[in-house]
Structures are given as structure tokens and as C-alpha cells.
Amino acid sequence: MAEWIGKDRRARRCYGFDEIALCPGEKTANPNEVDTSFTFGKKKFKVPILAAAMDGVVDVKFAVEMSRQGGIAVLNLDGIQTRYENPDEVLDRIAKASPAEATELIQKVYSLPVIDKLVAKRVLEIKKQKGTAVVSCIPAHAEKFAKQAVSAGADIFVIQSTVTTPKHIAKEYKSLDLFKFCKNTKIPVILGNCVTYETTVELMETGAAGLLIGVGPGAACTTRGVLGIGVPQVTATVDAAAARDFHFKRTGKYIPIITDGGMNRGGDICKAFASGADAVMIGSSFARAKEAPGRGYHWGMATSNVNLPRGTRIYVGQTGTLKEILFGPAKVDDGSQNLMGALKTSMGSLGALNLKEMQDVEIIIAPSIQTEGKIFQVGQRVGMGK
Questions:
Q1: What distances in angstroms separate CA 36 from CA 222, 256, 351, one per listed residue?
Q2: How many whole angstroms separate alpha carbon 194 and alpha carbon 275?
Q3: Burial per residue of 117-142, b for 16 or more beta-carbon CB atoms within 10 angstroms, e otherwise
Q4: Sequence-separated (6 or more) residues with CB below 8 Å from residue 33
Q5: What is the DSSP letter of 75?
Q6: Could you tell me which residues are beta bridge partners of residue 173?
Q7: pLDDT in tens, 318-342
């Protein structure tokens, strides 16, 4: 797979969503009869899509509504919802800031510490409305926040950092023992993010219940530009899926992988499942929902870093309700609404009756897939030409 990039140095070719296509095969199926459900632990979700733990995407109300629609929304415990008693006032300020002011304002807003009592309070608010309470934080806060969240009734705990490995080297502070944390936490733990086969295997050995796959592909993330790191999502997902299957063959334990980021249209989501994902996590598509707290704005999780921001605030607009984004009817022509309808139709066209069968469909390298025959769409900036 590797190619020479210079004297004595080789690099392997990796692929993103825009470079591949899914090839129809020998059978098709009725889209209304395919099974898109996602099983995680002892629970089954009809929507295999997680809303990302980003402050412009998920608050208590959004988490409850996502639960009602059959999916999962992850609340950021390091964010505005736990730093402010009244987060709406802060969200209004972020939405009204000019582009030149946005990053500095976000850095200032996130400089206040998390209020401990708000961690449990937000979980309780979700549970009281019969929502699935899934919460996320960085490794440094995991032990403290997990105790508070679990005691309040959280269902799933997520640990996220730009890159997560079980071999973190640090003399300045004590590293989180992922093996110990996963063993001692009484609810399922999802770890992220990673992009390679070897690290996926090692993280699965910690006892994690699921893994997030992806470094830097998010619409509001600038990690790839600032740090130069990342792997295109198709290759990252294929490698992680191979690691998952190896771990299952060796241990009998199936650990779901969740492709995180880089998808803003139905076709991208379909390609993620074909690459081996068990579920996907997206942010920008849900930031466009009328129920999203960002008021049509979306910003990266590391935008608030005081020294080296690795995200930016972007305007995505409010295009429809969460239900319309998930199930339609679509009111836009770019594939960003009725995501579940797109997934079912794609599965039917490919003859995949469930997500496991979707993971086995033929993938082809197709660099012209986004442009072939689309000259008028490109010229008029409609549909796939936007």
C-alpha cells in the first residue's frame, strides 16, 4: 500500500469519503424492510447516529428530543452547560459575536471552571424527561465527573481527547489509567479518538464498550491544519473495523466502532457504514436543527484552547427540525436532511438487509464520484455543487 514520497521514505495512500463509491450488486431490497438498528450493550437504538458532544449541538433539551427520535446525543461536561447556571445567555453572546470576535470570546467563556453540582444536575434533567443520558469529558476530568454522572443516573460515559492511547506519557501530571477506569465505572465507557489498527486493538483491551474513530475531520475542527495530523475517515474506519473483528475473533467480545466526524450528507454516512462502522457520530448536521442550542452556529471542541485553538466557529444555519434532519421530509437538495431515509434507501439499493450486511458491500475507488456529470449543479451551486 505504501508509495515512495522521497529518498528512503514511504507513505501509504489513505482515502476519504469523496474518493470512494458504493457499488450495487446482484440484489436489491425494499428500503422500508431493512434494519438500521444499532445495539450498544443491552440497549437497541433505531437510529445508529450519535449527536456529537459539542456545545452548539447538544444541550439537555436536544438530548431529550434525540432520545425520543430513537438516537443518542452526547452532552459535553467540559462545556457551557456545566460552567453556567444559565447557558442560554452565553450561547446568545457566542451567536451574536462577529467572526473576528468569536474565537477570543469562546476562549473567555470557557475560562470559568466547571461548577460541580451542574454535572449531576444536567444528567438528572435528562433522566427526568425520560431521555438517555450520555455524557463526555476529557481524560483529566474523567474520574471526578464519572462519579457525579453515574450517581445521577447517567447511561453511558464517554472520554474524548484529540488522540487517545492507553500509553500516555507524562511527568507533569498523572495519566488516567484507562484499564482501571473502564473496570471500575459501573456504566459502559466509550473511548476516543483513534485512527489506527494497532491503537484500536489496544484500546479495546482496556475494557471499553465502544470506540470513537476519527482525528480532525469535523466541520468546525482545525486540528489537521494546526497540527497536521489525522487519517481520512474511510481508511481510519476500515482499519478500526479490522481491529474490531480481530479482537472479537480472539476474545469473543464485540466492541462497536463509531466513526466520528467528516460526514454532513446522507451519502457520507452510508459510506461510513460500508467501511465497517457500527454507528456514526456527527455534529454539523445536527447543529442545523432548530432544537440545537447553537442558534445556527457550530464550533469545534478545542476552539476554546487558550494557547492553541484547534477549532473555529462556523455558521451552518437552521434548516429544519431534528425530526426532519433524521427522517424528513427533506426541504433541501444537498442530502443533509432525512439521513435515515438516505441510509435505508442506500441499503435497499445495495441489497443490505441490516448494518452488518452493509459493512460487506463493495467499495470502489472513484475520485470523480462527486463531479462526474454534475457540471450544471456545480455551475449553479445547487445540489452536489454547493
A1: 32, 15, 13
A2: 16
A3: ebbbbbbbbbbeeebbbbbbbbbebb
A4: 348, 353
A5: E
A6: none
A7: 999 999 999 999 888 888 999 999 9
Structural domains of the chain sorted by starting position, each given as residue range(s) with its CATH number in brackets: 18-167+175-385 (3.20.20.70)
* Residue-by-residue DSSP string for 24-50: P-S----GGG-B--EEETTEEES--EE
Using a 10 angstrom Cβ sphere, with 0-12 exposed, 13-18 middle and 19 or more buried, the burial of residue 174 is exposed
Calculate the average pLDDT of the chain.
93
pLDDT single digits (tens) 164-200: 999 999 989 889 999 999 999 999 999 999 999 999 9
pLDDT for the residue 156? 97
Could you give the CA distance from residue 11 to residue 20 in angstroms, rounded to a whole number? 20
Phi, psi of 354 (to 5 degrees): -150, 175
Integer-rounded Cα Rg, in Å, for the chain is 20
d(C-alpha 226, C-alpha 292), whole Å: 27
Query: Residue 301's pLDDT band (boundaries 50, 70, 90)?
Result: confident
- What's the pTM? 0.94
Can you state the angle between helices 266-274 and 339-350, rounded to 10 degrees?
50
Q: Which amino acid is at 70?
A: G
